[in-house]
Design goal:
About 60% of the residues lie in helices and about 0% in strands. By secondary structure, it is an all-alpha fold.
Length: about 170
């Protein structure tokens, strides 16, 4: 039985995802959820989303962040994407793309990244988190040995996409 069948049926996996979504919704979206769980949930859910569901889930997750958090997340994402050869255009050439404050714009960017290179966002933000991240991604966001997901904004973004997608999948049952 596949992931979606397990999630849509009754059972332990569905209960686990309901609990995950509940914990994500309580308080700050990064409290009560470990870095490993965020990465695991994202990696389990993201491959099963249509491009539209991915973008809608990302939009909902980014809407839960305040504009300054979205800006910080967008700047980090831009920095990491540039290191992978992807380009983001700064329309007013001030070194800061003000569109990052818009959850719609961020969801378009992340959705496009995921569609063009499945797993890219997870790689940029968490890599192989199971073994822990050393330098690289984590250090660029102040995460040190904990990786990018030790940063609450990155953790809220990735965890939020997984939580919103799981909620959508379960509501279609």
């Amino acid at each position: 039985m596949g992931f979606l069948e397990n999630l849509m049926g009754s059972g332990q996996q569905q209960d686990d995802y309901r609990d995950y979504v509940r914990r994500y919704d309580q308080g700050a979206p990064y409290d009560g959820i470990s870095n490993d769980e965020v990465m695991s949930r994202y990696q389990q859910v993201a491959p099963h989303m249509s491009p539209q569901m991915y973008q809608e889930s990302a939009h909902e997750a980014f809407s839960g962040m305040d504009p300054q958090e979205r800006m910080q997340f967008g700047q980090f994402l831009q920095q990491q994407a540039r290191s992978q050869g992807m380009q983001f255009q700064d329309l007013d050439m001030d070194g800061q793309d003000d569109r990052f404050q818009d959850p719609g714009y961020l969801s378009q960017i992340t959705g496009r990244m995921e569609q063009q290179q499945p797993g890219m966002l997870g790689q940029l933000l968490g890599g192989a988190l199971g073994g822990g991240l050393g330098g690289g991604v984590g250090n660029s966001m102040g995460g040190g040995m904990g990786g990018a997901l030790s940063n609450p904004i990155a953790k809220a973004a990735l965890g939020g996409i997984a939580a919103m997608a799981a909620r959508r999948m379960m509501s279609n049952m």
